[in-house]
């Protein structure tokens, strides 16, 4: 099959290349160029300002808050989702009557549209009639301002994200658990190893690559978070849940400060590029 | 003996946790048929006091079917376009030899696109769509969704093309079959399950997408289901019956495919790690 195939390869790749050129290369070049201008739309009537947009962003409290919140969200979401996924996977792994139904049921929240998920949880977070506060009142606990208390709103956001995406980490980690040969456990039990010893000595080391993959996938996604913030909190209360994606959206599409929004977008691309390097390193390392 | 009891506790716990996990979805189902007086209360019961279809009727009046049709058009269009561009690319990347590791460079670039935050491309994409006159059209949405769909489709199809035994094709080549013929009568049929799995993922991806639909569609008659839901969410705090009804209708088609998703995902991890 390996013949002189340069032209053929180009022909087969050309539809994808054309789409990538139009939808990513050109837009990236354009957003990079726009980030060097003070502009409310394009280049017409725009003033070249060099790297001023960048230096202003770094000095701006809103941007720094958005960056910090994004980091906090990504860390909290990734840790809780890998943790919940691990617990679910440990529970499901092994003899389980009806696993044909249990596993798809656990997967259900993951396939829902984020807007559907948000619709449910906004109702659940409602202070007066929301289901969560009704539950709290039913056990004589005080109701919580899930979305309007600045100290709690971020945790509420993490909770929704964890409900929606833990099924993914669960499935990855379950695949890891199921790849461990049964004989290893049998040998360990012949040697009289206790359950804690088995978990920390055998199971955990063997599923580390899967935990890492789950954490990587979730952190990359968490870094982009937009939909949930937009529809659950709108970045509020105050700036408590403002993230980088929300910030770019607000600057570019609400305040029409296209230059500064482009600079913020470029900063996001650079950060995700670094994450891509980690990812690529891992993919290549495993080959 | 102790071990057996442990196992029983574990199984019982699994059922319990699964049930708790599903409560929000059960709540959505029952709220969609509850009268408003019922859910605007402090009761924790999930059982409706009476069944009503008023929320569904209101949705039909609010042109739910039009929105669902838009979502369907965008899902089918996005999936088709992504497959047309991704399949030949995946085939070439697996089967042909590239000079100077250009295939790796291309794949790394695809990965970078996959990881790039969609919002960072939104401003220039808005301007591109506007200059092409495709802003606020479903066709424009189908095109920009390739930012998500194409990298995803290429990565997923790579594995499925690799699974097609190269000997089949070599045998056909000896018989003088052209590339087009080999693709049509050998590669495509053998990888049909993979193509279907990829299509299901792409369709769900575009069916659920929100950010670009919010930014690039302005006319309510062009809204997809997620943007329609978003307007209901922000319009009034307690349209819960209506929201649940539209949420359920938007989710039913994908919930029916959850088994597919499970298989596809599990396969992906195995391939990604080993």
Structural features, described:
The complex is a heterodimer of chains A (287) and B (274). Chain A is an all-alpha fold and 287 residues long. Chain A is built from twelve helices and two strands; from the N terminus they run αββααααααααααα. Chain A has helices at 6-34, 52-59, 61-92, 99-111, 114-124, 131-138, 153-178, 182-190, 195-223, 227-233, 244-254, 258-286; strands at residues 37-38, 47-48. Chain A has a two-stranded antiparallel ribbon. In chain A, helix 11 runs antiparallel to helix 12 (258-286). Chain A starts with 5 loop residues before the first helix and ends with a helix. The model of chain A has no long low-confidence stretch (mean pLDDT 89). Chain B is an all-alpha fold. In chain B, 76% of the residues lie in helices and 0% in strands. Chain B is built from 15 helices and no strands. Chain B has helices at residues 2-31, 36-39, 54-61, 64-95, 102-115, 122-131, 138-144, 146-162, 166-174, 179-190, 192-208, 211-216, 225-235, 240-255, 258-273. In chain B, helix 1 packs across helix 14 (240-255), helix 3 (54-61) packs across helix 14 (240-255) and helix 9 runs antiparallel to helix 10. The radius of gyration of chain B is 23 Å and the shape is globular. Chain B starts with a helix and ends with a helix. Chains A and B meet through helix 1, helix 3, helix 4, helix 5 and helix 6 of A and helix 1, helix 4, helix 5, helix 6 and helix 8 of B.
């Amino acid at each position: 099959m390996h013949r002189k195939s340069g032209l053929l390869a180009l022909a087969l790749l050309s539809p994808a290349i054309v789409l990538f050129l139009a939808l990513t290369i050109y837009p990236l070049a354009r957003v990079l160029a726009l980030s060097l201008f003070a502009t409310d739309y394009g280049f017409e009537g725009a003033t070249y300002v060099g790297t001023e947009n960048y230096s202003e962003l770094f000095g701006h409290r809103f941007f720094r808050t958005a960056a910090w919140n994004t980091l906090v969200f990504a860390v909290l979401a990734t840790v809780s989702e890998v943790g919940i996924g691990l617990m679910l996977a440990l529970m499901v792994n092994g003899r389980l009557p009806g696993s044909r139904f249990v596993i798809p049921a656990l997967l259900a929240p993951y396939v829902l549209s984020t807007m559907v998920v948000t619709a449910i949880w906004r109702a659940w977070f409602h202070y007066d009639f929301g289901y969560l506060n009704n539950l709290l009142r039913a056990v004589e606990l005080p109701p919580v301002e899930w979305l309007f208390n600045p100290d709690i709103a971020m945790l509420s956001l993490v909770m929704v994200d964890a409900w929606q995406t833990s099924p993914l980490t669960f499935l990855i980690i379950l695949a890891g658990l199921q790849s461990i040969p049964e004989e290893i456990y049998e040998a360990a039990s012949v040697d009289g190893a206790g359950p804690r010893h088995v978990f920390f000595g055998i199971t955990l080391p063997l599923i580390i690559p899967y935990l890492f993959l789950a954490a990587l996938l979730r952190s990359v996604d968490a870094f982009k978070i937009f939909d949930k913030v937009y529809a659950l909190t709108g970045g509020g209360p105050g700036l408590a849940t403002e993230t980088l994606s929300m910030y770019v959206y607000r600057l570019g599409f609400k305040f029409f400060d296209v230059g500064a929004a482009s600079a913020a977008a470029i900063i996001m691309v650079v950060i995700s590029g670094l994450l891509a390097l980690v990812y690529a390193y891992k993919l290549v390392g495993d080959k | 003996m102790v071990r057996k009891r442990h196992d029983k506790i574990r199984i019982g716990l699994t059922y319990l946790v699964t049930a708790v996990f599903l409560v929000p979805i059960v709540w959505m189902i029952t709220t969609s048929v509850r009268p408003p007086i019922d859910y605007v209360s402090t009761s924790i019961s999930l059982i409706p006091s009476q069944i009503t279809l008023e929320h569904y009727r209101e949705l039909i009046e609010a042109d739910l079917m039009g929105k669902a049709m838009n979502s369907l058009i965008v899902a089918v269009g996005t999936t088709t376009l992504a497959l047309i561009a991704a399949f030949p690319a995946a085939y070439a990347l697996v089967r042909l030899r590239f000079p100077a590791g250009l295939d790796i460079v291309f794949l790394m670039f695809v990965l970078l696109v996959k990881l790039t935050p969609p919002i960072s491309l939104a401003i220039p994409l808005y301007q591109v769509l506007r200059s092409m006159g495709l802003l606020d059209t479903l066709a424009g949405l189908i095109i920009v969704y390739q930012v998500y769909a194409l990298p995803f489709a290429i990565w997923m199809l790579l594995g499925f093309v690799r699974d097609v035994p190269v000997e089949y094709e070599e045998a056909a080549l000896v018989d003088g079959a052209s590339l087009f013929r080999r693709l049509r009568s050998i590669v495509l049929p053998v990888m049909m399950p993979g193509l279907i799995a990829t299509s299901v993922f792409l369709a769900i991806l575009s069916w659920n997408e929100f950010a670009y639909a919010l930014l690039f569609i302005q006319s309510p008659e062009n809204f997809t289901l997620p943007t329609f839901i978003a307007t209901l969410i922000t319009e009034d705090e307690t349209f819960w019956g209506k929201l649940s009804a539209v949420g359920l209708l938007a989710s039913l088609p994908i919930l029916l495919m959850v088994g597919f998703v499970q298989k596809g995902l599990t396969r992906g991890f195995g391939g990604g790690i080993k």
